[in-house]
Design a protein that fits this description.
The chain has about 1000 residues and is of the alpha/beta class. It has 39 helices and 22 strands. GO terms for molecular function: DNA-directed DNA polymerase activity.
């Protein structure tokens, strides 16, 4: 009887999750159920699984609406019918086709029209839905004659009165209106909830034909769907046989290139992998990925193949990855094995500049009807729930801000706020919108609309209406096509080196990108600002603590820094064991045997699988469940609990003490969602090392490329400082020497026009293009004639010093521009350029104060270039101790003057603390720790220079200063406003700092873990 059920995937309409919908139907003894979410199939696959668990016949459908108007309900006779409706919705969503008031000629779809949208003629597969409250209309002749084509329409949208009110709030949110002004036509009927089948039959007892039609329709529908059949493109060539043949040929060509002719170990590994790939029908998956990479190489793009795919020697041989599995003892089974039920995937990174080109190739090469992005369901976040519900109740902005910024416990207790709380709680986990998965691409054998309608988000690539978990469930495996800035930096640096020095750097040559003496020296002292993944303060501190002087330690460091290892307390333990390899004992012989490389500590996902298998006695399948839980991919908490119980039981059977078992599992559990597989760490480490090599030998080219790729962990100012420390002469933008991006000319680094606040991108490009067409600008007058911009933009260029080539002071140029523009007519720009010579103006000498330029620079690009921030202080004091000497002051108190670069929020059980990163007057970096007690009295006061008093703590070669007191140092007043005392300190507030906030739980301390360095009881 229930042909029209909504879940909360009918966005901002339905109030029930799929599980709640199905459970409610089951509790009423309902045996057949149709899910018809509004314009979406998001939930139909989960719906099928939930129904079949408890013996309900699932039927998929879609409620088709145009804006707020219900046009018809489409119910699939068989699964192919869903594809027909998907096609219509896709044409509407992606191609702008209008949804017609009546349904097109579907082959395998039943159509149910509401009584207010009956077409002139009903097709055989079309019916009219009648609600209980509409039965009195059937006495009218125009409806009475249609009774043979009528079915029961009992929509389901909510359950309780509270949920009905929630529905109204959702509708107000959707229509951006107040609850009090919500038009009732946008709201569902008050009877849209489950009723017993007997109740409905009794209500319709005078119309047995309607009951009969409804039952007949339900009987005629089925939802046959094979969850186990792989839906991806089946073959890269024309058949499986030719796919196998091609992959084998490519693998052996690559084997010869990577390992030479007679590497028997590599050959045996290739054969073993090819056999498994063939048996599991993954040849096409490998070949499609190889094809995408081949296109990338042809275009000259950099890529990194990472993730578990780098465990495969075949992927290494055919060029998908650049990690040798033999060198790092990576086992293929972590990526693909005959026992593994879940599909693997390759994660491949491209530069942020090139990714769209790669995506366009994939869509064109494999057909736009067969390719789409994975979707993702974006839930109402905590703040947005309060903001949206509060808006619906009509709260003013300041009250909304108060609700969103404060925790619920400290909100006011008035009745409106309490009502808002009630509905905010109900909306937890509610989807708010569908969006694009960050990287997952689906390539299907059948047209993609077979499985989903497509939507077109603002980014311009179509998405399916379900997320990666559903895609995985239905065996539509994704290709992860990612982007990052680090690869853009490497590629741009190599290109710039070729341009400036005429040197070709083969950055993929592992002889230089994995082991190079000077690069290793930089690594060991954490001199890695600008380098992919290893530039953050925490990572630089870890590198120094480990004295990381080679690629293999870097691989471990890339995973140790992850929150999972830190959360377990094992990052600190790893540092200790690395520095004192003779001062610890292994927990157990299994840890020694399988984790010797990492001192008996679980660092990678594979380590957890090893411990689960060899220590805990779990099967490979259960080990994989743990692995998936760690990577955040497993949705079954219940299954995870079963595995935990099995782990403890098996450990007990093996004779392990409860203490040892509990500690081993605690470490496993702490990894959830945060650990890397070893191959992933190795891939990151290669890219980190490549960028480090370029920084070491070509520092100016490297830092210019970092700036142009919009940096990484830090703001642009820090990278410009780093370039300066590497010998670069930093020049503010100049209309004759600067391009849109930052450029390198000898040792002069001309900042790009893109960094200039207040200068539009179009104008910046126009300045460069006009100069390239017609030569340098000869004067300010010449510039005005050639570039169509207003006086405010020209003033911005004058203030930053972009016309310094004229030899005139800024004050003089400002007067000149006003004289020039008094009678200037833009329409005569081209004519004047031909006819009029450049005029010379004689003006009185206008002097500027020292540091006026620096304050112009702070205002227009955010930081001073012509001097150091220290030069702008009122004091001449520069500190009693400098970074170069800090190691000598262990446990001693020091006073330092420093410029704030960044601070990171760290939660502790005693309150919030911060780690700070600074530079001293010599330009060297150092780090500080600010504990809650100190911060209460001596907190941060924004960007700028501070006087610091603290105690130096040298922790494994790495000095940190624990701050007791600090004070922000006053800068000189802005000399540009010597006549206006009120404005003399305005610009100081623009001095920036990088602040990163963390919401995680506090990490445990050593004494809380109670981890002995001697062996556990092994009895």
């Amino acid at each position: 009887m229930f042909l029209n059920c909504h879940s909360f995937h009918s966005l901002r309409y339905g109030t029930l999750s799929v599980e709640e919908l199905v459970q409610q139907a089951h509790s009423l003894g309902i045996k057949e159920l149709v899910l018809t979410d509004i314009n979406t199939i998001t939930a139909i696959y989960d719906f099928k699984k939930e129904c079949e668990k408890i013996g309900i016949k699932p039927i998929p459908g879609i409620e088709v609406r145009k804006e707020n108007k219900l046009l018809y309900i489409a119910i699939a006779k068989e699964f192919s019918g869903i594809g027909e409706v998907n096609k219509v919705l896709t044409d509407h969503n992606c191609h702008g086709n209008e949804l017609s008031e009546t349904a097109p000629a579907f082959k395998n779809v039943f159509i149910v029209y509401p009584i207010d949208n009956i077409p002139l003629k009903l097709k055989e597969n079309e019916f009219i839905g009648v609600r209980e409250e509409e039965l009195n209309l059937l006495i009218r002749p125009e409806f009475n004659r249609l009774i043979p084509k009528m079915v029961v329409l009992q929509p389901v949208t909510f359950t309780t009165k509270k949920e009905y009110n929630l529905h109204r709030i959702l509708r107000a949110i959707d229509n951006n209106t107040l609850l009090s002004k919500l038009n009732e036509q946008y709201v569902c009927g008050k009877s849209e909830y489950f009723k017993s089948t007997d109740f409905i039959i009794k209500a319709f007892q005078r119309y047995p034909d309607i009951i009969k039609n409804t039952k007949k329709l339900l009987r005629a529908c089925s939802f046959e769907f094979d969850f186990e059949k792989v839906k991806n493109k089946q073959y890269y060539t024309k058949s499986k046989e030719s796919d196998v043949k091609l992959l084998r040929r490519l693998a052996y060509l690559g084997l010869k290139k990577r390992y030479g002719k007679d590497h028997e170990i590599a050959k045996v590994r290739v054969e073993k992998e090819l056999k498994v790939i063939d048996e599991l029908n993954f040849c096409s998956y490998f070949l499609i990925t190889w094809d995408i990479v081949r296109y990338s190489n042809r275009m000259g793009f950099m890529h990194v193949g990472r993730g578990s795919g780098a465990n495969s020697i075949v992927s290494y041989c055919i060029g998908i990855t650049d990690i040798c599995p033999l060198e790092l003892d990576l086992y293929f089974e972590r990526f693909l094995n005959l026992n593994r039920k879940s599909p693997p995937d390759f994660d491949i990174d491209w530069s942020w500049q090139n990714r769209d080109t790669i995506l366009e190739y994939i869509f064109n090469r494999y057909g736009k009807d067969h390719v789409a992005f994975c979707g993702t369901n974006v839930e109402f976040k905590y703040k947005s729930r309060f903001r949206e519900v509060g808006k619906a109740f009509g709260l003013p902005k300041d009250e909304l801000d108060d609700l969103t910024k404060k925790p619920m416990e400290v909100h006011e207790t008035n009745s409106v706020v309490q009502t808002i709380h009630k509905y905010v709680r109900l909306m937890e986990r509610f989807p708010n919108q569908r969006s694009m998965h960050a990287c997952g691409i689906l390539i299907s054998e059948e047209p993609i609309t077979t499985y989903s309608a497509l939507e077109m988000p603002p980014k311009g690539f179509p998405i399916v209406q379900f997320d990666m978990n559903v895609a995985e469930d239905i065996k539509l495996e994704k290709f992860d096509i990612l982007s990052q800035r680090g690869l853009g930096t490497i590629k741009d640096t190599v290109d710039l080196i070729k341009k400036t020095r005429g040197i070709d750097v083969d950055i993929r040559d592992t002889r230089i990108s994995k082991d190079e003496e000077k690069a290793n020296e930089y690594l060991a002292i954490g001199r890695t600002i600008g380098c992919f993944y290893i530039e953050s303060p925490a990572m630089r501190g870890l590198l120094r603590r480990l004295k990381c002087d080679n690629y293999k330690i870097l691989v471990a460091a890339s995973s140790i820094i992850r929150p999972g290892v830190a959360q377990s307390g094992m990052m600190r333990e790893y540092i200790f064991r690395h520095n004192h390899p003779d001062q610890f004992q292994y927990f157990h012989s299994v840890f020694e045997e399988h984790l010797e490389e990492t001192y008996g500590i679980m660092v990678y996902q594979e380590d957890v699988i090893k411990i689960a298998q060899y220590f805990g006695g779990l099967s490979l399948a259960d080990g994989d469940i743990l692995r998936r839980a760690m990577s955040g991919k497993d949705r079954s908490i219940k299954k995870l609990q079963e595995v935990k119980a099995n782990f403890f039981k098996s450990c007990k059977d093996k004779g392990h003490s409860l203490e040892l078992t509990a500690e081993a599992y605690r470490q496993i559990e702490s990894f959830a969602g945060y650990s890397f597989c070893k191959a992933h760490s190795a891939s990151y480490a290669v890219e980190s090392y490549q960028s480090l090599y370029l920084k070491v030998y070509y520092p100016l080219e490297f830092m210019v490329s970092v700036i142009n790729n919009q940096g990484g962990f830090y703001r642009t100012e820090v990278y410009i400082h780093e370039a300066k420390m590497s010998g670069g002469n930093i020049q503010v933008p100049c209309v004759n020497s600067s391009d849109f991006q930052t450029t390198l000319k000898g040792k002069d680094i001309f900042l790009g026009l893109m960094l200039l606040e207040g200068l539009g991108e179009t104008v910046a490009h126009a300045i460069v293009e006009e100069r390239e067409r017609n030569g340098d600008y000869k004067s300010l007058q010449d510039f005005i004639k050639r570039i169509p911009i207003g006086i405010e933009t020209i003033q911005t260029l004058i203030f930053i010093g972009a016309f310094r080539f004229t030899g005139k002071q800024k004050n003089e140029l400002l007067v000149e521009v006003r004289v020039l523009l008094v009678n200037f007519k833009p329409e005569n720009r081209g004519l004047m350029l031909i006819e009029e010579p450049v005029q010379e103006f004689k003006l009185p000498e206008l002097k500027r104060e020292n540091f006026e330029d620096a304050f112009d620079e702070i205002e227009l690009i955010g930081f001073p270039v012509s001097c150091s921030p220290f030069d702008l202080l009122q004091t001449k004091y520069r500190g009693s101790v400098f970074v170069k000497d800090l190691l000598k002051f262990h446990k001693k108190q020091v006073k330092m003057l420093a410029y704030l670069i960044a601070r990171k929020h760290v939660p502790t059980k005693k309150g919030e603390m911060y780690f700070g990163t600074w530079i001293d007057a010599n330009g060297d970096y150092f780090d500080t720790a600010h504990f809650p007690d100190s911060l209460k009295q001596y907190g941060f006061q924004g960007g700028g220079c501070y006087l610091l008093l603290g105690t130096v703590e040298v922790d494994y070669h790495f000095p940190t200063i624990t701050i007791h007191k600090m004070a922000k140092m006053p800068m000189i007043p802005d000399p540009r406003y010597s006549y206006d005392k009120e404005k003399q300190y305005d610009i100081h507030r623009q001095i920036k700092e990088d602040v990163s906030m963390t919401s995680r739980q506090p990490y445990p301390q050593i004494h809380e873990i109670e981890l002995p360095r001697s062996a556990f009881d092994k009895k």
